[in-house]
Write a structure and sequence with these properties.
single chain, alpha/beta
Length: 164
């Protein structure tokens, strides 16, 4: 279902989380559940994957993850503070060891000079703290941005498992 590199990354995340005895939650906006889908494609993932939140709307980010409405108004959904709040909210509400959040502009429309198509913010909440990465996946179509986001999210989860 997923390209081989994504399937391999997902399998590595599941193995690393199992080795630590960790559980994972996802909080996805522009990827619409693809990270959770890649993880649950791996046999035995039910020992690790607790749940996935698909919070495409601002209302969903507020009600499901506890992202403050004032934060969304001040920074917009595609921002570092919101990515961090999404990851923290997912980890807290799911009660997992690890969570990943993805919020971005996959295109083809919706971009601006300040926030171009391909801009994606990631949050990763782990026992040792909350990390953030910002990427601009230039020159990719909607599918390309979404798949690049899945790859980045899985790499962040793997790094958090290996560092933990």
């Amino acid at each position: 279902m997923f390209p081989d590199d994504i399937a391999d990354l997902a399998a590595a995340v599941i193995a690393a989380a199992m080795a630590r005895g960790w559980t994972i939650a996802t909080a996805e906006s522009c990827t619409g559940g693809l990270v959770a889908g890649a993880l649950t494609e791996v046999a035995g993932s039910s020992a690790v994957v607790d749940r996935g939140f698909v919070t495409y709307s601002n209302a969903a980010k507020i009600t499901l993850l506890g992202v403050p409405g004032s934060m969304l108004e001040a920074h917009g959904a595609v921002s570092e503070p919101v990515a961090r709040a999404m990851a923290g909210g997912a980890r807290e509400r799911a009660g997992t060891d690890l969570s990943i959040s993805i919020t971005g502009i996959a295109g083809p429309g919706g971009g601006s000079a300040e926030k171009p198509v391909g801009l994606v913010h990631f949050g990763c909440a782990a026992p040792e703290g909350l990390a953030h990465e910002r990427h601009v996946f230039e020159g990719l179509d909607r599918e390309g941005v979404r798949l690049a986001s899945v790859r980045t999210a899985l790499r962040l989860l793997l790094a958090a498992c290996e560092a933990g």
